[in-house]
Amino acid sequence: MNFCSNCGAPANKELPYKCSQCHTEFWRNPRCCAGALVLDKNKVLMVKRLIAPWDGFWDIPGGYCEWNEHPKDCAIREVFEETGIKVKLKEYHGIWMEPTDHSDYGENVCVYYTAEPMGDFFALPDGIEIGQVKWFDINHLPEKIAFPSHIPDVLKRLSDELNPSN
Ligand SMILES: [Zn+2]
Fold first, then answer.
1. DSSP character for 65?
2. Could you say which residues form the signal peptide (predicted)?
3. Most buried of 39, 41, 116, 166 (most Cβ within 10 A)?
4. Could you tell me which of 116, 62, 111 has the C-alpha nearest to residue 88?
């Protein structure tokens, strides 16, 4: 922001910021994301991104929560939108932070659940954000993983849970 939206005084570009004239505070808040580790025995469902960032890399299906949406509902919705598969969530898996270069927002708070497909399922990538949907054995994951600052760790925890003897 170049000017305070409350009083019009010149302002810092960087958030968070407190106006020196009227003392209004402008926050830089995190955004909430949710995703699901959809499991079929030892295989996990992954999606190949068509859009930046990390286009061409494999990701866990998920995305941003709507303004009033519980992360559980977001995870179910995003999996369906990206893969065409309806899922039932099983367990809370964890929360990871993902840095962002968007200066109006803080980091992304990414909530993950494990899930299972409901009924008969047939993966159908959405074709716009997702080019390919594939089941990977948890012990043979693809090399090109999106969001390397946290996704490998999400999968590592899953692998540890599925292979308790390792
Ligand atoms: Zn002001």
1. P
2. none
3. 39
4. 116
pLDDT tens by residue, 104-155:
889 999 999 999 999 888 888 888 999 999 999 999 999 999 999 999 999 9
The token pair that represents 43 in the structure block: 């295989």
- The alpha carbon of 103 and the centre of ligand 1 are apart by a number of angstroms equal to 19
How far, in Å, is the centroid of ligand 1 from the Cα of 17?
Answer: 10
65 C-alpha to ligand 1 centroid (Å) = 31
Residue type, 153: D
Peptide bond into 16 cis (omega under 30): yes
Expressed in angstroms and rounded, the spacing between residue 164 Cα and the centre of ligand 1 is 56
| Dihedral sign (CA 135, 140, 146, 147) | positive
CA of 11 to the centre of ligand 1 (A): 8
**What's the 21 CA to ligand 1 centre distance in angstroms?**
5
